[in-house]
Amino acid sequence: MIVEEARRLRDSGVRELVLIAQDTTDYGHDLGLKDGLAVLLEQLTDSVPDMDWIRVMYAYPGYVTDHLIEVMATRKQVLPYLDMPLQHAHPKTLYRMRRPSNIDWVHRTLGKMRSTIPNLAIRTTFIVGYPGETEEEYQALVDFVKEIRFDRVGTFQFSFEPGTTSEPLGDPIPAEVKQARFETLMELQQGISMQVNQSYVGKTLDVLIEGRDKGIAIGRSYRDAPEIDGMVFVEGKARIGDIVAVKITGALAYDLTGVPVPSLIQV
Which one is predicted more confidently, 33 or 41? Predict the structure, then answer.
């Protein structure tokens, strides 16, 4: 049972629980549950109320329900963070990928989430150079990234793999085109990430301290999933394992810097 495992992790001192699957919104379908992920989050927050953070990874927009949005907005342990692996933003590309291609649905879901969940951080991943991706389709992806302004974006170049569903499509896009598209999209997102990070300067964020280096504590805020997102570098002697209130004093493209607010440290 997931709830029992959460209790064991809590008892061992774990402060963050990450729910991860190929599609977390599919949870409970085999059990006949409706809105299974939302139900699971309610069970976890009721059963393990002293688990500090609960993070949800890999949720597909077509299955992000009003119930799930409401749970994320009202259950304080559930972080206002969602990894939504969209893969592309042009319907024709998504159709060839055999993925849901209703981009209007994505817009509506993201708009509803942002209007309901304060300070929501959204991460996504895209593939450039997928077989058949035209300049028009790629430009639609670029325009989508400009419009949505994700907190975090991971970009990958299509790599041909025998035995996959894409094998019949081959690998027709030249490597140099894929590389150029990759670099353009990453440069765009780097600028967006920098601007978003700068908006946090002067604000206070809770930071889970996970390491130290040369007198600097290193941790993560709610905006940073383990091992894939940025870090927060904290001056002073914050202890590993503490959740520390940190006033953000500086911003980089992917990371933040700050100083602890002693009276707000959670131990």
Answer: 41
